[in-house]
């Protein structure tokens, strides 16, 4: 007898969403139905294995059949099947507790016009109503009679006893009529179905079979091929490859296979720079394939770049980009994760909040860093290439966590340096090569390496033979600021006012010169007080007459970077100190006129501008600088 039943309220809402969905990604229905079939087979297998022989073992497969005339797609499995209660509970009601959450998310997303979210969740059986106007489910369990569940979505469904020989479920979708907006007929095309299975369900562990058209050479009556003539035959094909690359034995997967996989899957024309096969079996279990591209993805810096790894559970594709699986600073990493631990949770819980996802992220992060360490140790050239492309992100990892990731990342940082020139060095190497008595790790920042090498402060370190890290990226100093030290040795900026590598005697000389030229220094300071915090006799210079150092950790380069940030209304200002080389003739010339306060004051700004230029900076008032310079030349030449 045919019984008509009403869907539960919640189901009705979800159905409504699906039926009225103009969701462009409606193709996911196939993935959902295949995944249900695969789950049902898993359950049957478990049942027969634990039934002590009462439930026979079977060969399992999933069949897809297309009928263009009737406009139907049929998906059959020989899995566990459903009895009447199962049909009511599983298909008449939303079986999953998380679905309510999901629905509100979808509704919210729909209101905002963002319907893409549907594809990210296991929306399950009802997703078939995105493409079907009517669905029949003919199903039989191992024990009871067969039932036919039938529904046109709306608000009710019918259940009646039916005929079916074997255990399992056959689902028939009666496709909606195509319209101007959406083409449903494409799902009746073999190649479409093949493509969808390859894309979404390739690694389902049971064969997914379909009768497919193929062309065979025509034979004459003696059984010989007739050249150039073919006949159309229907043959059953298995559409999925079943064994995912990442489920294979690590040792059996070659680098070539990994490279090919990467290029196919992530649509890159170049082999990855670094590939990583991860297989973790412990508190959490997962397999992952991770790749670092050999060039910067073209859209990495665009706003719509989405970080994330593909997510699978037991070979069932769940999501294309799960951002929860990667920390921000590794956003350039591509790859996929497959974890059986996620299976139960995936449709029941909203993915983002799953603690398993956090654990996998942590683990993936560690694996990537370990791999980078290994490459750095074994192939510095390769590492240098990686660093040029993505080094900034690693430094950002330290900066953005306020140093929280210092211990994890500090040994994969590399820098240019004064002594090494073109080759990158690690902090460990820097420390090992420190000179006797050298107290700190010295660094200096600037626009680019050439500009940095011209800085007046460098001269002294060259003379001493101390190495200096040359920082040419904006993020560098901010990263170092967060680190503070490396292996108990402090970082010090050579353009910092307080950084001095001098002996007691040298200090005494400087103190004496400072005292002798107090009137000069005070006058300069007074004239430049708007721009400058202090004017001092320098211990930093060798050949250059002047330099500009900064106080309290904010360097000129940082000042520039911060003020360039969009939205920073209030400009920051580095505390600047004008330093004068006491050995230079310029200083001696000023000492000679130190009694003439007005003259000193008149040309104070030229000293500051000179120092700014030597630091590779813009000067504030170019016109004034030119005027004064000309004045001096005219005076000198007309003598
Ligand atoms: P989920 O698979 O996440 O549980 P679905 O909406 O896809 O949610 O399916 C709901 C339920 O219907 C499943 O949990 C299962 O119990 C039942 N079901 C769906 N398809 C099949 C099938 N082919 N064979 C047996 N049971 C099925
Ligand atoms: Mg499902």
Give an overview of the whole structure.
This protein is α+β, with helices and mostly antiparallel strands. Helix content is 36%, strand content 22%. The strands form 4 sheets. Strands 1-6-5-4-7-3-2-8-9 form a 9-stranded mixed β-sheet, covered by helices on one side. Strand 15 (414-417) and strand 16 (425-426) form a beta hairpin. The longest helix has 24 residues, at 355-378. It is elongated, with a radius of gyration of 36 Å.
Which properties best describe this structure?
alpha+beta; binds adenosine-5'-diphosphate; 22% strand; 639 residues; six-stranded mixed β-sheet; 20 helices
Number of strands: 23
Q: Mean pLDDT score, rounded?
A: 89
Oligomer: single chain
Q: How are strands sequenced across the largest beta sheet?
A: 1-6-5-4-7-3-2-8-9
Shape verdict = elongated
Classify the secondary structure makeup into a structural class.
alpha+beta
What small-molecule ligands were found?
A: adenosine-5'-diphosphate, magnesium ion
Largest sheet: 9 strands, mixed
How many helices? 20
Distance N to C terminus: 122 Å
Beta content comes to 15-25%
Overall radius of gyration: 36 Å
Spans of 5+ residues with little confidence (pLDDT < 50)?
Answer: 344-349
Helix content: 25-40%
């Amino acid at each position: 007898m045919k019984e008509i039943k009403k869907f539960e309220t919640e189901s009705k809402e979800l159905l409504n969403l699906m039926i009225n969905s103009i969701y462009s990604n409606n193709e996911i229905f196939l993935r959902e139905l295949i995944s249900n079939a695969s789950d049902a087979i898993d359950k049957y297998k478990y049942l027969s294995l634990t039934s002590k022989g009462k439930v026979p073992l079977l060969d399992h497969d999933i069949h897809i059949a297309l009928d263009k005339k009737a406009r139907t797609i049929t998906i059959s499995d020989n899995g566990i099947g459903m009895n009447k209660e199962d049909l009511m509970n599983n298909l008449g009601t939303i079986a999953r507790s998380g679905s309510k959450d999901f629905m509100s998310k979808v509704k919210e997303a729909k209101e905002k016009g963002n319907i893409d979210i549907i594809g990210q969740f296991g929306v399950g059986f009802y997703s078939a109503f995105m493409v079907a106007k009517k669905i029949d489910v003919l199903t039989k369990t191992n024990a009871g009679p067969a039932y036919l569940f039938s529904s046109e979505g709306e608000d009710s469904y019918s259940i009646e006893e039916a005929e079916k020989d074997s255990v399992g479920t056959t689902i028939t979708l009666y496709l909606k009529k195509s319209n101007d907006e959406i083409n449903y007929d494409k799902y009746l095309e073999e190649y479409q179905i093949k493509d969808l299975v390859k894309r979404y369900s390739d690694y389902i562990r049971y064969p997914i079979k379909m009768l497919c058209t193929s062309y065979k050479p025509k034979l004459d009556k003696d059984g010989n091929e007739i050249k150039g003539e073919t006949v159309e035959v229907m043959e059953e094909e298995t559409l999925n490859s079943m064994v995912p690359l990442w489920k294979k034995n690590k040792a059996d997967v070659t680098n070539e296979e990994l490279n090919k996989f990467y290029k196919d899957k992530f649509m890159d024309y170049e082999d990855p720079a670094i590939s990583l096969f991860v297989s973790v079996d412990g508190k959490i279990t997962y397999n992952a394939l991770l790749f670092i591209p050999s060039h910067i993805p073209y859209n990495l810096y665009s706003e719509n770049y989405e970080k994330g790894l593909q997510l699978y559970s037991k070979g069932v594709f769940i999501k294309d980009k799960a951002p929860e699986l990667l920390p921000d600073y590794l956003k350039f990493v591509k790859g996929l994760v497959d974890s059986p631990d996620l299976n139960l949770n995936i449709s029941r819980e909203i993915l983002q909040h799953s603690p398993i996802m956090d654990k996998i992220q942590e683990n993936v992060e560690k694996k990537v860093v370990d791999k980078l360490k290994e490459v750095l140790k074994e192939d510095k050239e390769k590492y240098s290439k990686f660093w040029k492309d993505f080094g900034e992100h690693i430094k950002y990892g330290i900066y953005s966590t306020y140093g929280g990731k210092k211990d994890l990342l500090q040994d994969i940082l590399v820098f240019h340096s004064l002594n090494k020139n073109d080759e990158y060095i690690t902090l460990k190497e820097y420390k090992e090569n420190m000179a006797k008595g050298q107290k700190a790790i010295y660094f200096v920042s600037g626009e680019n390496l050439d500009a940095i090498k011209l800085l007046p402060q460098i001269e002294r370190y060259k003379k001493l033979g101390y190495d200096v890290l040359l920082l040419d990226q904006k993020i560098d100093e901010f990263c170092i600021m967060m680190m503070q030290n490396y292996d108990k040795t402090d970082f010090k900026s050579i353009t910092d006012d307080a950084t001095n590598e001098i002996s007691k005697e040298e200090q005494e000389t400087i103190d004496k010169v400072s005292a002798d030229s107090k009137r000069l220094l005070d006058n300069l300071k007074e004239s430049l007080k708007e721009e400058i915090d202090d004017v001092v006799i320098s211990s930093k210079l060798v050949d250059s007459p002047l330099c500009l150092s900064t106080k309290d950790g904010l360097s000129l380069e940082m000042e520039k970077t911060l003020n360039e940030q969009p939205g920073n209304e209030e400009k920051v200002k580095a505390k600047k100190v004008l330093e004068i080389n006491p050995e230079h003739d310029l200083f001696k010339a000023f000492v000679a006129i130190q009694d003439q306060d007005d003259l000193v004051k008149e040309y104070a700004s030229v000293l500051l501008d000179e120092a700014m230029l030597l630091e590779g900076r813009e000067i504030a008032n170019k016109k004034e600088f030119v005027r004064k310079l000309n004045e001096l030349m005219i005076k000198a030449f007309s003598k």
